[in-house]
Amino acid sequence: MNNMQNPDPSVARRIDLTSLQLFVAVCEQGSIGKAADRAYMAPSAVSKRLSDLERMVGIPLLHRHARGAGPTPAGQSLLHHARSILFSLDKMQGELSEYADGVRGHVRVHANISAIVQFLPEDLGTFNVRHEGIKIDLEEHLSTEVLRAVHEGAADLGICHTGTIGQPVDLQVRPYRQDQLALVVPAQHPLARESSITFADSLEWDHVGLHANSSIYLAMRAAATAAGRSIRLRIRVTGLDAMCRMIHNGLGVGLMPRRAFDLMHGVGNLACIPLADDWAHRRINLVARDFSSLPVSARLLVEHLEPPPPDHPFLQPAS
After folding, report:
1. Which of 43, 117, 185, 301 has the fewest CB within 10 Å, making it most exposed?
2. In order of start, what are the domains of the chain with their CATH numbers?
3. Do residues 307 and 177 touch, judged by C-beta distance below 8 A?
C-alpha cells in the first residue's frame, strides 16, 4: 500500500537545498551509501532525509533495490529541476563573488553569428576598455533563439536579425548595424568574375547552407519560393568558416555576410559576389523587453552599441 499523501501546494517553499543535493547525488551515484560517502554523512542520515523528502512531496522518488537506488518517473522530473536549481545557485554565487571582487555590473547578451563575427569583437572590446567593471556574458544562438531568450528573460539583450522571422510583439527593437549578403564561390567558378548577382541566378548550383532556422537560410528559402524555384541544398554547416572550407572543396556555393567573408582571410581560394536583391541588405537590431527598465550596466552597453541618431526614431516597436 502506498503511504504517500497528497503533496502540500506550498511544498516547494519547504524543500531544503541539502536534501536536493543528496537526492541528486543518489541518482548520480546509484547508491545511498556512495552518496553518503561523497557528502561525508552516515547512510542512515541520508536515507532519512530522502524519506522525509518523499513524504513532503507525497510521491515516491526513488526505487530502492539490492544493488542501490534509482529515480522513479517522478524522481526523474525532480532530478531535472533539482539540477537546474543547483546550477542556478552556483551561477548566482559566482556572480555575487565577482561583485565582491569589484565587478560593478553583469549583462547577459545573446547574439547571432553574423553580429558576433562582423561587429561585436571590436564593439565589446572598446566597451570593456571604458567599463572594466562590467562583465558581459555573450552566447551565440540563432536569431529565433535570441528572440526567445530575451522574451523569456534568459538574456538581458539580444542582437540579431528580425526582418525575416516572427517575434513576440512585446519586444522592443533599436538599430545596431547593417550588413549585405554575398554569394561565395570557388575562385575558378563560372560566377566568380561577376560584379553582382541575383539570388535566383545562384539556384543553378548546389548550395552549402547554414542551419534551417538561421535568418540567412530563412531569407534564402523565401526568395527561392518567390522565384518559383527550389534550393539544391547539398550540405548544412553550423559556422561560416566551415561553409568557406566546404565551398573551397567544391561542395557548392553559399551565402554569407560580405564583411564576414572579408574578415576570414585565407579560408580557401574563394570569390565573393554581392547579391543585388533588396532583401540581401539586412539590419541587425538590438532587442530587449523594455530598454528603459534594463539595469544600468545593460543600458550603458546599449548606448555604446547604438549608432549615431539617424533619421529613423530612436526607439521603435518590433516589426
Report:
1. 43
2. 11-99 (1.10.10.10), 105-309 (3.40.190.290)
3. yes
